Amino acid sequence: xxxxxxxxLSPHLTIWKWGPAMVVSIIHRxxxxxxxxxxxLGLIWWLMAAATGPEAYATFVTCATSPIGYLVMAGLSxxxxxxxxxxxxxxxxxxxAGYDLKTSKTWSILTFVLSTIATAAFWAAIxxxxx
Length: 131
Prior knowledge:
- The protein is mainly alpha-helical.
- It has four helices and no strands.
- The protein has helices at 20-52, 54-64, 67-94, 101-127.
- The chain is elongated, with a radius of gyration of 21 Å.
């Protein structure tokens, strides 16, 4: 069957004008996968260390409380809050609200702002000994 040249090609990412809603949607998927992967690996490591004995658990605690460990935990907490606020945004969109461009852009940007504030507040509470 011959292909006609008058048919339009499917759109791809290079022709779209990127907006906050597109970025939030992609970040939502990335954070969900990151939480599932890194969270599962961290949980398995913690459980294996606890089951293996005091030396293995001490190694886990040393790694988790190192600067890189804190960086990973802070990153995972930002992933959590970003995924949470983005999920709430999607929930509202599923109810049929917020589809006009200005509201969608505002809520999309707000997910990044709120997740950053929530992460900073969470770690401030941890560092100040509230937990």
